[in-house]
Design goal:
This protein is an alpha+beta fold and 753 residues long. Helices cover 37% and strands 17% of the residues. The strands form six sheets. Strands 2-3-4-1-7-8-9 form a seven-stranded mixed sheet. Strands 10-11-17-16-15-20 form a six-stranded antiparallel barrel. A hairpin with a 2-residue loop joins strand 2 and strand 3. Helix 2 crosses helix 3 and helix 9 packs antiparallel against helix 18. The longest helix is centred in the N-terminal third of the chain and has 37 residues. The chain is flat, with a radius of gyration of 31 Å. The chain starts with a strand and ends in a 24-residue tail after the last helix. The relative contact order is 0.13.
Length: 753
Amino acid sequence: MAKSLFIAEKPSVAQEFAKALHEDMRRGDGYQESDSYVVTWCVGHLVTMSYPEAYDPKYKRWSLDTLPFIPDQFLYEVIPSVKKQFTIVSHLLNRSDVDTIYVCTDSGREGEYIYRLVEQEAKVRGKKRRRVWIDSQTEEEIHRGIEQAKDLSAYDNLASAAYLRAKEDYLMGINFSRLLTLKYGNAISSYLGRNRAVVSVGRVMTCVLGMVVRREREIRQFVKTPFYRVVQSVELPGQAQSSLEGEFRAVEGSDWYLSPKLYKENGFLKREDAAALIVSLMPGSAQNAGTAGQRTCLTDTDVLAATAGETARIDSIEKKKEKKNPPLLYNLAELQNECSRMFKISPDETLRIVQELYEKKLVTYPRTDARVLSTAVAKEIHKNIGGLKRFAPAAEFAEEILSSGSYKGIAKTRYVNDKQITDHYAIIPTGQGLNALSALKGHAYGVYAAIVRRFLSIFYPAAEFQKITMVTAMGKEKFFFSFKVLLSEGYFKVAGNPNDRKKKSQSQNLAQGVSANSDGANTDVLSGAENGAGGSETDGGETEFGADLLEALKGLRRGMQLPVRSLGIREGETSPPKRYNSGSMILAMENAGQLIEDEELRAQIKGSGIGTSATRAEILKKLVSNEYLALNNKTQILTPTLQGEMVHDVVYCSIRSLLNPELTASWEKGLTYVAEGSITSDEYMEKLENFIRSRTDGVMSLRNQTALRPMFDEAAKYYKNGKVTDAENAAGTRKKNPGQGRVRKSSAKGQNK
């Protein structure tokens, strides 16, 4: 009797397939078997590309004479540590009673590559091959994947892209790492006082290193500029206890318009000029403040109170309603960024957690770039929602969604778009596997709750605000106000109001859920934060007020006179660029080196990222393990090491294009074109070989080793024993005024012993 063989990527996945087949399975060594089926597994990669010495022993010794190394035919070999499992799998694939092979490795480029290598080395011939492509490990999804399995040949282009990705990383890594080590390794090792130094180069890794080093140097070179804003506080009619704050802007008609004493239009470079403006506007308080130029150095909290009944006229007022839609669903990059922010965990740890949730059937496939659902999934989405009624923190919301029927129209929204899906749709809860919740450790419960919260949010309406912008005038000078009132909480009911600072943040609520279990403990994990009655500043610089002030705001009209309670000075200063944290770096990699917060802009550049959702976390991990980057485990902040900066400078002076995010992203885009069938493997390979040959020849002709020493010296000022100094942590504190707040730099002495 002919049998079907199912081959999975991991033992745990194979176990789920074996269960779903509902056969009496007998356990063998490295497989399970019934009368109809055989189920086996890889353990990740079983086969890898051979080292150069496998082609010729001469390549074992690193030499410029053997570069560039570009073989006509690539060699592969079984990984020694997993040779036993490969032998088992190879035998099963070639068994005479097996006529059909169901390929069940992870549904993506790397999963395809893992199986193709095994089949290649096992020399499988004459078998029917079907590709199982699933989005979760639920039994229902496994059955769907088997029933709808396509012939493996339908994925030949994807396999070609996978082979090319491996060849690209292999050739760039071997050629450029050897080339730059041979040319510049001695310069680095002698400077650091080491016996040897390897310049490790990677297509994506080196680009990411460049992003971190550039950001660090921008921070060092940044010079802070202090500025002083004048703030007006006015009373609302009938609201003696309430006031609104607006800030002065030197618009056309102002005595200060285009004045060189201004920092932009809303601040002064000197405090005394800000104080002079206040005195000129409130003459009734002049006796308290002195004349302009006298006693004008007010502290941050000092104000001039209105003692002569000064008022401000409403010059203009505009009221409009504004909506804020629920955000798109999580893809892996977005989830990694959120978890870095909420839980201070690395992208690698987030991936490990969400992979565990996937294997426990709690969520769908994690290694996805999509943030939307497919039309097919949208038709059955009520099943996912219904299952969440058994997750205590979400039960109320799930029941409300089902009873209202809000899920029925989801296919017509921006959250469903087949064109934005390549391999998999967004990460969402399956509504199944909830019995496994009690066994989750660490932050796994919180990560699951975050995925549930984001998922349920899309079935709620937009949050609605009344936005009010107002301009008041005192003589020629004008003050600008912007604030809004929450009218309808919409999806904030599930997600919480991100601008509410009076309640615990959602991340804190999620963190409380770490020890929660399925009996309903910590049910506030998904509860929406309430909007406070007081005002709080939003991310957009607006002030958000509670609904109790809405009526007073509605009564404001152009031409009205408002009592001026006070005018004050608020000191600020320009801020240096922020360092990348592990999460923001993942987002920047997804967006070709740009940290794009806006969802619509991110959608436009989608598909042009650096690396893939499956590899980005591993790339960061490798940079840290190579000691090119340092990761603060508490804050998840990334900084370069001295060695990392030196490697950056070597690459900058030799193969600068490796540091270019746009170029690196274009390679990834090219692989996508191969997978889509837009270009051939030969076309891609020709460009790759030309790139490697031309860059290798270029470096061979360089004689710039001594020119690197000043660059190393400059970088070393910020390190002590290879680590960032306290002075570097204070980078960016220098003032524009010479002599104030200079950064103390540690000596580089002793670095090159």
